[in-house]
């Protein structure tokens, strides 16, 4: 909620539940000295908008680290000016130097790039070292190589012929007996290159996968893995059900998929759906044969070698980019590093069961938990709209007594950071909202 009330530095503000309950009369959780290692920049990346506009348009993403309250006494501040970042009076949002540093810090981490003037503009370096986010472990939980699918043939004979092709010269002495020459659109012959400037704005070093967003059958589908190790294009059945495609024909197939462990997964059939890759004028719109698979996955779909080879794509996991020639030039798909890491985090979520469980009971319990995995709450955002009849917090205050302002509490920098993080989570989830009370 966009709150235009001021929050005084003396702790007169509080948090209250949206249902009317108040969580206390002090907001000391968000006050105090700023956390250590806040970078100060000598130069700033040129922006297409003012910092106030950037904050207004990107605040809903929940990526900003809000600062503690302004320590200047309220009677020495200009109460006609309000800062939405500090949520306090004293200066305007555009004048806020802390917000300017925060925007630059986010640009350094590869976010807010749409507000950077010039696509290849390199963010300025801070005068102090910026702590890098914790890197992922060097192992992946998902199967990265997928073999099988109709691309190599439906029968054993077809698969043998497909494998035998590698032992012969490609296209030996081909003769066109029909006299009909297929018209192939002339694609751009510009060289496909990846420059170091295209890797700026990413966290390095990284082991992140290329995760993109594509429009499939007119639906915008997020969390699509671009996988050079997959010999098939895959659409997961849970995604297919959410797409609500009416009248789409599913062709039966005898093909199965297998991974590192050689365990086979039977497919539900083949779907032929249009996919838009890139943006106009450097765009491909092609029909892709997706194998429909009914199994749990953190991804919605996988784009494998059939489609990548069809559009002559070249991938770079270092740059998190996919490039391909089109009639209008070189098309580009950009991977979302933040999305990739969120998927990795989600894949590591697990529920522990008793080690002494055995036999059919253990199997039934695991099956039951997997079927109802959507009821588990992994974060505050997974628990919206709690009924007040279930739980609500109120302060029993006698209205006949005059409220007394509590003394300001102080904490060390580490505790301030932890408190601010938790309060921001509750604000983002809508569990609490900001309130202002007069002195």
Low-confidence stretches: 1-38, 119-145
Order of helices and strands: EHEEHEHEEEHEEEEEHEEEHHHE
Average residue-wise pLDDT: 76
Shape: globular
How large a portion of the residues is in β-strands, by DSSP E? 15-25%
Largest sheet: 6 strands, mixed, barrel
Overall radius of gyration:
28 Å
Structural class of the helix and strand makeup?
Answer: alpha+beta
Count the beta strands.
16
Distance between the termini: 23 Å
Strand order of the largest sheet: 5-6-12-7-11-10
Helix content percent band = 10-25%
Instruction: Please work out how many helical segments DSSP would assign.
Output: 8
Write the layout of secondary structure elements.
Blueprint: E1 14-17, H1 51-58, E2 82-83, E3 88-89, H2 97-108, E4 147-148, H3 156-164, E5 210-216, E6 219-226, E7 233-236, H4 237-243, E8 256-258, E9 264-266, E10 269-279, E11 282-293, E12 301-303, H5 305-310, E13 314-316, E14 321-326, E15 329-334, H6 337-347, H7 359-371, H8 413-429, E16 432-435
Parallel strand pairs: 6-12, 7-11
Antiparallel strand pairs: 1-16, 2-3, 4-8, 5-6, 5-10, 7-12, 8-9, 10-11, 13-14, 14-15
């Amino acid at each position: 909620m966009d709150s235009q009330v001021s929050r005084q530095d003396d702790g007169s503000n509080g948090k209250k539940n949206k249902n009317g309950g108040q969580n206390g009369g002090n907001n000391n959780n968000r006050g105090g000295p700023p956390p250590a290692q806040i970078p100060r920049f000598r130069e700033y990346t040129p922006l297409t908008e003012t910092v106030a506009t950037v904050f207004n348009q990107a605040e809903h993403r929940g990526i900003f680290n809000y600062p503690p309250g302004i320590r200047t006494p309220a009677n020495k501040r200009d109460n006609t000016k309000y800062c939405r970042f500090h949520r306090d009076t004293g200066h305007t949002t555009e004048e806020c130097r802390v917000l300017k540093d925060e925007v630059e810090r986010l640009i350094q981490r590869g976010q807010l790039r749409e507000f950077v003037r010039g696509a290849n503009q390199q963010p300025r370096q801070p005068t102090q070292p910026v702590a890098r986010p914790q890197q992922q472990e060097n192992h992946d939980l998902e199967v990265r190589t997928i073999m099988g699918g109709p691309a190599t043939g439906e029968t054993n004979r077809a698969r043998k012929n497909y494998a035998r092709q590698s032992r012969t010269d490609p296209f030996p002495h081909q003769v066109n007996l029909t006299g009909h020459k297929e018209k192939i659109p002339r694609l751009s012959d510009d060289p496909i290159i990846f420059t170091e400037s295209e890797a700026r704005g990413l966290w390095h070093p990284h082991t992140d996968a290329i995760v993109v967003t594509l429009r499939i059958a007119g639906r915008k589908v997020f969390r699509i893995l671009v996988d050079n190790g997959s010999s098939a294009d895959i659409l997961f059945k849970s995604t297919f059900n959410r797409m609500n495609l009416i009248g789409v024909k599913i062709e039966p197939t005898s093909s199965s998929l297998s991974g590192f462990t050689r365990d086979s997964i039977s497919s539900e059939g083949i779907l032929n759906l249009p996919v838009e890759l890139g943006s106009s004028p450097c765009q491909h719109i092609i029909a892709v044969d997706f194998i429909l698979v009914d199994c749990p996955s953190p991804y919605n779909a996988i784009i494998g070698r059939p489609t990548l080879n069809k559009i002559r794509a070249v991938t770079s996991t270092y740059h998190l980019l996919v490039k391909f020639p089109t009639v209008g030039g070189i098309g580009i798909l950009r991977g979302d590093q933040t999305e990739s890491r969120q998927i990795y985090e989600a894949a590591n979520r697990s529920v522990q069961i008793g080690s002494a469980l055995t036999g059919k009971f253990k199997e039934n319990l695991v099956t039951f938990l997997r079927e109802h995995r959507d009821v588990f709450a992994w974060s505050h955002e997974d628990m919206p709209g709690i009924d007040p009849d279930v739980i609500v917090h109120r302060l029993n205050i006698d209205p006949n007594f005059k409220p007394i302002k509590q003394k300001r509490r102080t904490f060390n920098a580490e505790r301030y950071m932890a408190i601010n993080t938790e309060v921001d989570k509750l604000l983002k989830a809508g569990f609490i909202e900001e309130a202002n009370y007069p002195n």
